[in-house]
Structure formats: structure tokens, C-alpha cells
Amino acid sequence: MKRIIRIITAVCMSLAAISCSGKKPQQLSIAVFIPGIIADSPIYAMLADGAKEAVNAYNNGKPEVSQAGLNILEAGTNQAEWSSKLTALAAEHKYSVIISSNPSLPELVGPLTQQFPSQKFILLDAYKTGNNNIATVRYNQHEQSYLTGYMAGLMSKSHKIGLITAQEYPVMNDVILPGYKEGALAAQAGTTVDFRIVGNWYDASKGSELANAMYKSDVDVILPICGGAAQGVINAAKENSRYLVLFDNVSFDKAPDNIISCTTLDQKKMAAEITAAYLTGKTEWGTAKTVGVADGYVKFEQDAPERKNPAVTDDMRTKMKELVENIRTGKLVLPQN
């Protein structure tokens, strides 16, 4: 009898130790790590909404004990803090997967898979192969930036267009800026791009200052990729009666007379799909996928649903439709580097 009691006691202690160590979550539990602020970034809002949609669909009709958990955390705009916040999140051992979205994240989470070997990561808008704890999906931002640049080039009368970014980073320097220039030059030979940097993702006053300076130097179309600072760029476009081409989501309502196109990413759809795939055990770990126009995740929106911008001519609309169709069918191939 004493031997049986000792065995039972040892088993209970072992189970308690496993539970306390938190090496594995008790059930499917997802953390969505927002490297920024949802209110300032439509792309992160879509990430959160897509994950919520998939978890709600998975949990529907299941008893509470079988439901997946979801926690959405905003890391703020200070990129220097993202690594420590990701480390703290993984160290909690509470989440079976951490889902996030940003091109810089593979570099940050790679070491964490060594430090926390049971922690899984799914990263959107990112690219990383060969790590069996990480799955990534990126959008073809060569296609996205080329389409945007082409539209800006068609619209520009001065043949000077601008791009205002929050900061320099590899995808910006190696893909987005070159693609934007390439598209503009294809639309109108001799078009130049004025490239300026806010220095952060939130300073709307700085965004306005840069945009005003660019408009005064005869730039007539600007692409802002600068988070909350983009509101300042939008305000400057209104004040100067100049034009904007936007990335990531449909936002014509922010300045209907000034926004001439939105080249969007269907991040909500992708976030829902990758979350659902994880919940049903279909994630392909260690892989990287690229999606674009042909897959339906990169889209060009010329006009608001109920309003055509009178500044955009029918000839411009026709040229853009032809360009989108050429990319969709593979007649024009713009590979993501």
C-alpha cells in the first residue's frame, strides 16, 4: 500500500511540475502580437480581425473546454521594444502559437525558437524558410508598389512624385521604393521620386511638414507609408489640392478629392486562413509562401464604391485595368525578390 501511495504521489508531483513549467499550453491558445497600434494601422487591424474571425468560427458549437483561446497584444510603435516584448510573451509559455505581421519579425523570432523550442510562430508580411517553428506568408509588394507607382506616374503633370516612409527597412529599400520608381517610369519616362523619412510611425506633424515641402518642390502625387504620420500627409494633400496614392486598405473616405487609388492587401482574409489552418493542424512549418495579384491578395482599387474621382481620366482607368490584368494573367511578371 505504501509503495502504491509513493507511486501516486510521484506521478502527481510530476504532473504538477509539468503544469507549473508551462512548457506546453493546456489547449490551443493563440497570441496575436501587434508590432504597433491597431488604431494607427489598418494592416494590423485586419490581422486582428482575421484571427478573431477564424477563432470564432472554430469555437462555434464547441464546449468551452475544447475552445481555442485568443489574446491580442499591442506592442506599440517603438521598434526597439519589440524584441523584448516578444521574448516576454514567449517566456510565459501560455500560447501554442504567436501570430504577427511585419517584415522585420523573422530576424527577431529566430533566436526565440532556440530559447523556447516549443514555441511556434506564424508571420504574415514576412519571409523565412527552414525553421520548423516558423511559417511565413508575404505579399508580392513588387506588384503592389509597381501598380501604385504606375498610377502616380500617370497622374503626375510635373513628373515628380513622392514617397514618405516612417523609416528605412529592407523591404522598403529593396522592394517598395524600387518598384514604385519602376512603375512610375513605365507610365511616364523621366519621372523622378522624392523619398523622405519621418523617423517614426506616429508623428503626423512631421508627416505634414515633409509633404508640404514636397508639394512646394513641385511633387504632385505622394505615397505615404508611415502609420499614424500618414494623417499629416493627408492633411497636406488637402491643403495643397494635390494627390495621394495609398497602400494596404481602401481609404478613399479620408480625402475623396485627393486619393486617386488604393493598392490593397487582403490581410484579413489571409489572417483568417492561416489561423484556421493552424487550428485544424494544417500549418506547413518551415515554409514561406508569396501571394499577389493572381492569388487575389493584392488588389488595385481605382475609385470609391459610389464615387469616381473626377481628377482620374477614363484613359488612366483603362491603362490601369490593362496593367492589373497583365499581372493577373502572367503577361507581366513582377517577382518578389
Task: Please name the defining characteristics of this protein.
alpha/beta; six-stranded parallel sheet; disordered N terminus; six-stranded mixed sheet; 10 helices
Q: Find the structural class using helix and strand composition.
A: alpha/beta
The helix/strand order is: HEHEHEHEEHEHEHEHEEHEEH
In order across it, which strands form the biggest sheet? 2-1-3-4-5-11
Please compute the radius of gyration using only Cα atoms. Answer: 23 Å
Number of strands: 12
Strand content: 15-25%
- State the major sheet: 6 strands, parallel
Distance between the termini: 69 Å
Count of DSSP helices? 10
Determine the mean pLDDT: 92
The poorly predicted ranges are 1-23
Relative helix content:
40-55%
Shape: globular
Textual characterization of the structure:
With 337 residues, the chain is an alpha/beta fold. It has ten helices and twelve strands. It has helices spanning 2-21, 42-59, 82-91, 105-115, 141-155, 170-187, 204-216, 230-240, 267-279, 314-329, and strands at 29-34, 69-74, 97-101, 120-124, 134-139, 160-165, 192-197, 221-225, 243-248, 259-265, 288-291, 298-301. The strands form two sheets. A six-stranded parallel beta sheet has the order 2-1-3-4-5-11, sandwiched between helices. Helix 5 (141-155) runs antiparallel to helix 10 (314-329) and helix 7 (204-216) runs parallel beside helix 8 (230-240). The model is unreliable at 1-23 (pLDDT under 50).
